[in-house]
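Batch job 17 of 40 flagged for manual review because the log was empty.
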Amino acid sequence: MLTLPAFEWLRPANLDDALAHLANHAAESLVVAGGTDAVPNLKHRLHEPRWIVHLGRLDELRFVRESEGALSIGPLVTLSAIARHEGIRRDFPSLARAASLVASPQIRNMGTLGGNLCLDTRCTYYNQTYFWRDALGFCLKKDGVRCHVVPQGRRCVAAHSSDVSPVLISLDASVDISNARGSRTVPVDEFFVGDGVHNNVLVPGELVTRVTIPAASRGLRAAYQKLRPRAAIDFPMLSVAFAARVSDGGCEHARLVVSALGAKPRRIGGLDALVKGRPLDDALGEALAEAAYRQCRPLTNVAYDDAYRHEMVPVFVRRAVREAGGIA
């Protein structure tokens, strides 16, 4: 049986109390909300904090607010609440779909938007018990100095496994980040960095306090597709988010994001020349599939064949374009 390490439990009553604690003890603290990913990692000794800071009492971070200018969602809103919210299903169906495909109903009832956005990266050499990792030799992400996936690499290539993140990038969303001194806003497209040890821009003492999707993203033709071994429970081994603005039968612009292959989602470049004025049909899907196939290079960072995942990139891009275009 895997047991939890010893820690002190802290349950702040409000955001100011949480940020005040993190201002002084961020390096020794692990922030949790639903805890659906953090608890297994604690049992594997991937995290060994002095304090667990549980955000469950922070009702000020649990909201969905619709306005003419934007949709704002608090980071403590559960994934199941996002999946069934009428306004999100109406205006941003790809986000509702992505939330609905996370793990199982029990996990979606506990897991939160902020937790999935800030989900720790995963790797076949990292997400193991302490005994397993000690026997093999610790990796660059935890306790070691060598990457077992890319032995000469200086950066961790553990896979980004969030479902909501590629969709938020495709919808041009942003996140508000706060600490004890103030706050800042960062586009989700710039929130992630290509190092699996810590793959986002949060620095010690900071928390995500709001996710905002601009009103301009309402009415986009959007889709989310996910490849995984089982249709429940499993993390993605490939995910694709697509969103396009269509007017008079032709695309004005589009965003295509492929994720779960490296430490951060990959936004496919050069789309404007491919989509401008073209309808959302199979021909466009084929063009986008070829572009994504050329730009994506899966690594052996999860327990699935990298060549197979590469071949599935164009398949799932085509499916996403067909979904967005309403093609049966």
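Reviewer: the log was empty due to a logging misconfiguration, but the result itself is present. The mean pLDDT is 97. Unflagging and moving on to job 18.
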